Amino acid sequence: MDPVTTAIVAALAAGATSGVTEAGRKAIADAYEALKTLLKKKFGHASEMVKSVESLETSPRLTMRMSEDLPSNQRAIGSYIAQADRGGSATVNVYQNPPTLKSQNRQRLLAKVQAFWIKGVLEQSLHDAVVIELGLHEQPDAVTNPWRLFVEQPDQSGQSLPPGTPITKVYDDAAGELLILGEPGSGKTTLLLQLVRDLLVRADQEEIHPMPVVFNLSSWAMKRQPISEWLIEELNMKYQVPHKLGQSWVDADQVLPLLDGLDEVTPAYRGACIDAINAYAAIRCCKS
What we know:
The chain is α+β, with helices and mostly antiparallel strands. It contains nine helices and seven strands. The strands form three sheets. The protein has a three-stranded antiparallel beta sheet with strand order 1-2-3. The protein has a two-stranded antiparallel ribbon with strand order 4-5.
């Protein structure tokens, strides 16, 4: 096997994928398996070539150093020097293209939500505090089910969830449509921010997940706009997102709004606020 092929196989066999996303690791693994298949087909399962590959899988010897003299538009993940048991060595430089403007904008918004709501509110509120585990109680009849008039359903009376049930599991089980109820001061915002924290991790790891953003409904009563328009204005005023970018995100459902403070909406407008939220949810449901 030539030194370059040896180095590539050794690097892949050793899992030299630091800094690569899960999707990237899978793509590399798939490419590696395809390479082995081609080698076996071309040289035979018992050939010296195939044996060399298999020996690298069991005992690759790798050292690592940071790469130098990179192209100006790329950054280094690392540089790998691989040596096979049967001799031959070479260096494989692993590069990563710079993030696109779309990714940069996305990361900026996620960072702002993390900094203000998680670091600034959730973690500060829990600092040196005795954390009380809240008992969660499922209450399906708290929201209107439009199918209830047409489909005979089993009893959906409320029931307590097992102690320690994560709010993220409740959210997932509810298919992303969750209403957190409770008396003032009962911990609704804390639960919401714990959910935000977990959803931020998902959105940071995979761009297929929308960006979780906290919006406080207390400002909605000022103009009483359709929720989509209000979200765009709030993104601009609270998170410094340009209107055009905010609109593109909202239109494409790339923003996952987590609404807090319904009980802070002026009582005279609270019903209208709920109607606006339901109208927004109906539009999103039709789009998906």
